[in-house]
Write a structure and sequence with these properties.
Elements lengths: L1 E3 L11 E5 L4 H10 L5 E3 L3 H11 L3 E7 L2 E2 L22 E5 L3 H9 L4 E5 L4 H11 L3 E5 L8 H18 L6 H12 L4 H5 L3 H8 L3 H7 L10 E5 L2 E5 L1
Helix pairs in contact: 4-5, 5-6
The chain binds D-malate.
Length: about 240
């Protein structure tokens, strides 16, 4: 197991990637597909997202955030709770741009390896999908503005634990050892640790505590989105 704690690190050579942005891009992607969403096209900039959506047409939604807030003119922000009241079933898909998560999807996709989206909600199933495929699993933490994010590292600790339950004796790199120690330090209590993070602090200030609670629920979803190239463009699919 190789765990990349910050998105700027050189990516090691692995067979499959699990990309984690616990608060909130990977949790939101899981919720999107749970609610019948078909595709997410991740893009890095707001301008590119607007341009792509204009080309694709009205049947697509535009979603994402900057500084955790919805972007002007977008249909949705980055709250996983939004899909409770937005009907995705008759939409072709969503164009999405977030500060960190979509960049991590694009980075993992550029390796040409298998990529899955992992969060706490789908931790068990994401670990299972990754292990089924091959032996060397990498976990890429999306981080926060190029720096380490405690929430992602804790979710990586949870994923590592799920992987170890299934795979037993595996070789851990230093990133995995750090994450494992951190996971133990917070008593394997994801929510407790996550509330110490900068990302959680910002969401709390913005009154989005419910998003944090939702993202911290462990193993309540079997939805594992994958990132593939569709007509040369990275795309999240089920
Ligand atoms: C991101 O992708 O940067 C995050 O998910 C940020 C957020 O939703 O607050």
């Amino acid at each position: 197991i190789r765990i990349v704690l910050t998105p700027g690190e050189t990516l090691p050579d692995v067979d499959v990637w699990l990309v984690v942005d616990l608060l909130r891009a990977s949790s939101t992607a899981v919720a999107f597909f749970e609610h019948g969403g078909k595709k997410i096209l991740p893009v890095s900039s707001v301008e590119e997202a607007r341009r792509l959506k204009a080309n694709l047409g009205d049947n697509w939604i535009l979603m994402g955030e900057r500084k955790a807030l919805p972007i002007e003119g977008f249909d949705l922000g980055n709250s996983p709770l939004a899909f409770e009241y937005v009907h995705l079933k008759d939409k072709a898909g969503a164009v999405m741009t977030t500060s960190n998560g979509t960049l991590a999807y694009l980075k993992a996709a550029s390796t040409g390896k298998a990529v899955f989206v992992a969060a706490a909600r789908n931790a068990y199933h994401a670990a299972r999908r990754a292990l089924k495929l091959k032996d060397t699993v990498g976990i890429l933490c999306a981080g926060k503005e190029g720096r380490l994010a405690l929430d992602d590292c804790l979710c990586a600790g949870l994923l590592l634990e799920e992987i170890l339950k299934m795979a037993g004796n595996v070789d851990l790199d230093d990133g995995a050892k750090v994450v494992s120690a951190l996971w133990e330090f917070y008593g394997k209590d994801l929510e407790k640790g996550v509330y110490m993070s900068e990302s959680a602090k910002l969401l709390m200030e913005l009154g989005m505590k419910e998003d944090i609670e939702y993202c911290c629920k462990v193993n309540c979803s079997f939805v594992v989105p994958t990132v593939v190239l569709l007509e040369g463009r990275p795309c999240l699919l089920l």
